[in-house]
Amino acid sequence: MNKSALKLAIIPLLMFGFGFALVPLYDVFCDITGLNGKTGRVEASEINADLVDRSRTIEVRFLANTNTGLPWSFEPLVKKMQVHPGQVYEAVYRVRSASDNKTMGQAVPSVSPGLAAQHFNKTECFCFTQQELEGRETRDMPIQFIVDTDISADIEQITLSYTFFSVDQG
């Protein structure tokens, strides 16, 4: 009887421990695989223009996706660019509403490889706020970004991907 009670008491404790450990395990998994790499945000006033590393270039690729349920088309105007770490750059994405009604969406960024995400910072981005489009509206949305100079020399390419999700207003 005591062995059964002990086992029944241990099982919930193990389940709680596993659930508690899931978040750090997920973060490690994302760092290893490059999934769900979150970008940073910096103020333009924090950037030191004297720290640009002109001896090095990194290719930044731009991707765009729209989740089902949001009647928008979404694409980068430039698919890739060569950047110097420490210099501020601007890229533009274009979004078009295929709906006759007002719709709202939120862009979620992801950077890969995951190790580059902590060195990829934005000063301005449409992803900071929800975007509302009138019926059939087209809009160009710029982002300003900088790659830190202390990024690993092994990283020669970074992919910035956005997915727009529908924001339910009701």
Written overview of the protein:
The chain is α+β, with helices and mostly antiparallel strands and 170 residues long. The protein has two domains: 1-33; 37-166, Sandwich (Ctag/Cox11 (Pfam 04442)). The protein has helices at 2-33, 114-117, and strands spanning 40-41, 58-66, 72-76, 80-83, 88-97, 103-112, 120-124, 131-133, 138-147, 157-166. The radius of gyration is 21 Å and the shape is flat.
End-to-end Cα distance: 54 Å
Helix content: 10-25%
DSSP strand count: 10
Query: What's the CATH architecture of the largest domain?
Result: Sandwich
List keywords for this structure.
alpha+beta, Ctag/Cox11 (Pfam 04442), 2 helices, flat, 21% helix, five-stranded mixed sheet, 170 residues
Topology of this structure?
Blueprint: H1 2-33, E1 40-41, E2 58-66, E3 72-76, E4 80-83, E5 88-97, E6 103-112, H2 114-117, E7 120-124, E8 131-133, E9 138-147, E10 157-166
Write a short abstract of this structure.
The chain has 170 residues and is α+β, with helices and mostly antiparallel strands.
